[in-house]
Amino acid sequence: MMPRDRLIIALDVETRARALDLVDQLKGRVGLFKIGSQLFTAEGPDLVRAIVARGEKVFLDLKFHDIPSTVARAGVEAMRLGVALFNVHALGGATMMRAVVEAIKEAAERERLTPPRILAVTILTSLMPPDLKQIFIAERIDRVVTGLAQLAAESGLDGVVSSPQEALLIRHAVNRPDFIILTPGIRPLWAQKHDQKRVLTPAEAIREGADYIVVGRPVTASDDPVEAARRIVSEIEAAERESPYPQGPYAKYSSFGPRDY
Ligand code: C5P
Questions:
Q1: How far does residue 169's CA lie from ligand 1's centre (Å)?
Q2: Are 74 and 99 in contact (CB under 8 A)?
Q3: What pLDDT is attached to residue 226?
Q4: I want to staple 157 with a disulfide (CB 3.0 to 4.6 A). Which of 20, 152, 184, 198 is the partner?
């Protein structure tokens, strides 16, 4: 895995034209493109197909949270679109998570498709302790986050989306070397923070054990997205050189290729 493979660009833009313009500029220079609910609601599955058809990898960030059969079927549709990665809420429960893992495995074999990796969202990082209390979650956030990460791992998911501050905690709590940790909330020192509050730099996130980092506006809102992405990739590379894990902690497991069940 190359340093650029660890950079995921959040395509939080309004139109297909803008999204494809960014993809065409950044093609081959970054690891994946993330499509979230804004762009997916505006432009739909055809845009996902268009990016996949360009040979690029897509992370479909729709955070499925529903009854097990619905999430399982939605996951299979994500696989049919050709995404490399999608996510579900761990708060949907172990039965839901196992259902989607099973459905993907069966459909991948039946239809000879490459199974995407499935990540869990634990607790949204926008929620603070008073917000959790309001929704009847009384435990400390770090215990909820690590407990849900463990549940996701036991349910057969491939990893979690987490705040970079939680990455090390999760790495220690989950006893599975192939568990993927993907972190948004990243700001290089030279970029504006926008609405992000507790941010880490790309290098810090890599040193904290993140396998992948998600960066949006510092690249997509830049006058020169190619140069912005290049600078971030070189920060990742420098962090790898200083890190005890020269290729990234679990690089050999995280190439998003076909995998054995
Ligand atoms: O532009 P920026 O780098 O802030 O974009 C970060 C992306 O990661 C956005 O798509 C945002 O929805 C997502 N994200 C986040 N914080 C989380 C979870 C997801 O910023 N805790």
A1: 20
A2: no
A3: 98
A4: 152
Q: What is the CATH number of the domain that holds 195?
A: 3.20.20.70
pTM above 0.90, yes or no: yes
The pLDDT mean for the chain works out to 93
Residue type, 115: P
The tens digit of pLDDT for each residue in 44-56 reads 999 999 999 999 9
pLDDT at residue 126 above 50? yes
- Which pLDDT band, with edges at 50, 70 and 90, does 249 fall under? low
Residues of the domain holding 19? 3-254
Which of 197, 214, 215, 219 is the best mutation target for the ligand 1 pocket, counting ligand atoms within 8 Å of the beta carbon and taking the most? 214
Residue 241 has pLDDT above 90, yes or no: no
Closest-CA residue to 203 (of 234, 161, 168): 234
CB 12 less than 6 A from any atom of ligand 1: yes
Q: Evaluate: CB of 194 within 6 angstroms of ligand 1.
A: yes
Does residue 260 belong to any structural domain of this protein?
A: no
Helix axes 45-53, 16-26, angle to 10 degrees: 20
Nearest residue by C-alpha to atom 8 in ligand 1: 184
- Cβ pair 47, 79 in contact under 8 A: no
